[in-house]
Specification:
13 helices, Aspartate Aminotransferase, domain 1, Aspartate Aminotransferase, domain 2, 40% helix, 7-stranded mixed beta sheet, 2 domains, 3-stranded antiparallel beta sheet, 12 strands
């Protein structure tokens, strides 16, 4: 198998799997139990939280373990809406969010009478700061922005957006950092945000494992009841073994990060140069402010599913859009938002790369793409 769908998920690092198995055997007790085994497991969970907090440069109590970014996004958006609805019922997000954000805002709009502003994007799949500033109001209570778009890899101008929001409103700021965490350079402590969502399965960790960062002064109402776990933000018995390897997952992801980034960017540029040879191809990933891990392009005259199936027959795994909506036979919401072209939105292909991608695998991909394009 030749895997080029790393933005959908990644293989679990063998060291993470080994550590998880060990933790499962040693620390399986419920951290809420008062016996020695439970107290020991609780101590281990606390150490794991401290380790993660140190990587982000935040306080232990600001780290909430979750099942992943979908849960984190839902908890943040619905929880803030409940906590601050008396202050205002206007919220802001973008047209290019992951469905766990976009659909949750739609839910607030349809069932709870919130007014939602969906910011448009330009041809580079980035929001315009003037649109954001115009949308901010005294009653705006939350703004959610995806740091790196999961389909085309555009990096949003989050630093400037944060400054605008802080200057013109009292809104909380929430970043979906699933595709940016450990993949593009930034300092977490430089981001003046209230909330962030992170998934481990995007960085070679366990599926069903993730983080919610919550700044301590940020109000939120829990969505899962039944216990006071995770500082009362999220009820439910702790997945202690999975949470214990989150720190190790982050540490491994940060190892040789510059070298990994350079390798991936070299492949990214090679793929871009290859695609630029064909006049029937439009590259959707911008040339500037992009994540090198994602290359998205549209092929005029071909449906994206036809390319996917042809490559799949050759043992090559790619995607046509984010995995959360891949099975829906609809044009890409993201590509349509940036182009307003339905043909381009139905012929988009996403190839996502990794530091694990070898030259042999990459050449095999190019050979097969060349064969497909020669038939157009």
């Amino acid at each position: 198998m030749f895997y080029f769908d790393y933005s959908a998920t990644t293989p679990v690092n063998s060291d993470i799997l080994a550590a998880f198995e060990k933790m499962n055997h040693q620390f399986y007790a419920n951290v809420g139990s008062m016996h020695t085994a439970g107290v020991t497991a609780n101590d281990q969970l606390a150490q794991a939280r401290t380790e993660v907090a140190s990587f982000l440069g935040v306080q232990d109590e600001e780290i909430i373990f979750t099942s992943g970014a979908t849960e984190s996004n839902n908890l943040i958006i619905q929880g803030v809406a409940d906590a601050r609805k008396k202050e205002g019922k206007h919220v802001i997000t973008t047209m290019i969010e992951h469905s766990s954000v976009y659909d949750t805002y739609r839910y607030l709009e349809e069932y709870h009478n919130f007014e939602v502003t969906y910011l448009p994007v330009d041809e580079n799949c980035r929001i315009r700061l003037e649109d954001l500033q115009a949308a901010l109001r005294p009653e705006t209570i939350l703004v959610s922005i995806m740091h790196v778009n999961s389909e085309v890899g555009s990096i949003q101008p989050v630093e400037e957006a944060i400054q605008l929001i802080r200057a013109h409103s009292d809104a909380y700021i929430h970043l979906d950092m699933v595709q940016s965490f450990t993949k593009i350079p930034y300092a977490f402590t430089d981001l003046d945000i209230n909330f962030a969502s992170i998934s481990m399965h995007k960085i070679y960790g366990l599926k069903g494992s993730g983080l919610l960062y919550r700044r301590l002064d940020s109000k939120i109402v829990r969505r899962m009841f039944g216990g006071m776990q995770e500082f009362g933000v999220r009820g439910g018995t702790a997945n202690t073994p999975a949470n214990m390897v989150v720190g190790k997952t982050i540490a491994l992801a940060l190892e040789n990060i510059e070298k990994k980034h350079a390798h991936v960017d070299t492949l990214h540029q090679r793929l871009r140069q290859f695609l630029e040879q064909y006049d029937f191809i439009t590259i959707n990933t911008p040339k500037e402010s992009y994540s090198p891990y994602i290359v998205n392009f549209s092929v005029s005259g071909l449906n994206s599913d036809d390319i996917l199936y042809t490559l799949d027959q050759a043992g090559i795994c790619i995607s046509t859009k984010s995995a959360d909506v891949a099975k829906a036979k609809l044009p890409s919401r993201i590509l349509y938002a940036m182009s307003r072209c339905e043909q381009r939105a139905t012929s988009g292909v996403r190839i996502s790369l990794s530091h694990l991608t070898t030259e042999f695998e990459f050449d095999y991909l190019l050979d097969n793409l060349k064969m497909i394009f020669s038939q157009i």
